[in-house]
Amino acid sequence: MNENVMKCVNAIRQITEFKPKIALILGSGLGNVSSKIKVEQEISYHDIPGFPVSTAPGHKGSFIMGYIEGTPVICMNGRVHFYEGYSTEEVVLPVRVMHALGAEILFLTNAAGGTRSDYKPGDLVMITDHISLFVRNPLTGPNDNDEGVRFPDMSSVYDKDLQKILIDTASECGIELKTGVYVQLTGPSFETPAEIRMLKALGCDLVGMSTVMECIAARHMGMKVCGISLVSNLAAGISPRPLSSAEVEEAGKAAGSAMSKLIIDSVKKMS
Ligand code: HPA
Question: Which of 30, 150, 206, 216 could form a Cys-Cys staple with 112, CB 3.0–4.6 A?
């Protein structure tokens, strides 16, 4: 385990022995799932030495550890992004820490721009694959052979069994769940219409500034991964309006209850 991860884990283990099975990362405006957790322990990121703290709007800074209907989860109410100036290693440090605490599954959520004409703001989209564009791979540098192999396979990143659980749960709950390919760009500026046309041509359905790095680190360590994007807006040039972070947060709040029902009912089946 790398030294920075070990320091964080040691600090957390001074506070709690809680062992999560599922790690949940809640994206912009999507934090209300954490209110459905039977909380055992909440730890502010400020209390963990060297832990990166988010400066993004709509992101809080604490780990919530507890149970969703008996399943032990650790929930990140807020994540850090590359555009905040953190290194890729820092961006994925929380995932490495959650894995070291015991999490075997990483459930990612984010708010994203939609590039497809059959998406509308408020849609929930299950991520089936991803594209990493212009962002540094988080595994760059010496490889920690104890964590994973030098050249990890990425041919089936989003776990098929977890995808089936998401699809079945959405249908049981009467929630429409679309599918799509997510691309992570660096941000923080939103894309231009020309960039969106390029991304569409490359096969990107959802555009955002997170998730892929975390997912790569998780797969490196052998975690199973699934992810859901909330389409907070149609992407630049498709949307008639200029994009804003306020719109992204509003969409998160509006779709929050469907998103949290889907997450909670799915997590129960993942244990
Ligand atoms: N582009 C990039 N990131 C985003 C968007 C977008 O349109 N919406 C929410 N996050």
Answer: 206
**Dist. CA 177 → ligand 1 center (Å):** 19
Which residue has its alpha carbon closest to ligand 1 atom 6?
113
Among 121, 134, 140, 133, residue whose Cα is nearest residue 181: 133
Average predicted confidence (pLDDT) for the chain: 91
Question: Smallest Cα–Cα separation from 225: which of 125, 109, 137, 108?
Answer: 108
Provide the H-helix boundaries in 2-154.
Answer: 3-15, 88-101
Q: Above 80 in pLDDT, residue 194?
A: yes
Alpha-carbon distance 212 to 52, whole Å? 18
Q: Dump pLDDT digits (tens) for 111-161.
A: 999 999 899 889 999 999 999 998 899 999 999 998 999 999 999 999 999
Name the residue at shortest CA distance from atom 5 of ligand 1: 113
pLDDT digits (tens, 9 = 90+) for 169-181: 999 999 999 999 9
Alpha helices in the chain (DSSP H): 3-15, 88-101, 160-173, 193-201, 212-220, 245-270
Q: How many angstroms does the Cα of residue 190 sit away from the middle of ligand 1?
A: 6
